[in-house]
Amino acid sequence: MGRILRTATAEDAPILLNVSTQGPGKVLIRNSGSNDIRVGYDRSDVLLATGNNFFTIEAGITYVFDASQGVGFLSQTASLWFNSTLGASSLEIWIADDRGL
After folding, report:
1. Domain of residue 77, residue span
2. What is the DSSP code (8-state) at residue 88?
3. Which of 16, 18, 60, 93 could form a disulfide with 5 if both were Cys (CB 3.0 to 4.6 A apart)?
4. Mind listing the pLDDT tens digit for each residue in 14-64?
């Protein structure tokens, strides 16, 4: 099972998304828009004016992460902030874990 999240991002308007897992599996994060998206643990980290501790997902790029009890991951038990600082974009997240089984 798992879950899929799709969302649009407005220019410099951070959104908080739950990307936590409930068991072993994979997490896919895809920037399906035309502008880069910043990812961070705190809202101020992803803002255009104050951001300095963020990771950039370039337009058109997909990242795949392994997730399990023994493997570290971006944010297994918390949410992450996402922000497209230079224009609107869109984001797809697939959490393919064993939830609901």
Report:
1. 3-97
2. -
3. 93
4. 999 988 777 788 889 999 999 999 999 899 999 988 888 999 999 999 999
For the chain, what is the domain count? 1
DSSP, res 6: E
**Closest Cα partner for 93 from 41, 48, 1, 26?**
26
User: Alpha-carbon distance 90 to 86, whole Å?
Assistant: 13
Token representation of residue 43 = 């809202």
Q: What is the pLDDT of residues 52-91, one digit of tens each?
A: 899 999 999 999 988 776 665 555 667 899 999 999 999 9
CA distance 43 to 1: 30
* Separation of alpha carbons 16 and 50, rounded Å: 17
Distance of CA 90 to the CA centre of its chain: 11
What is the reported pTM? 0.85
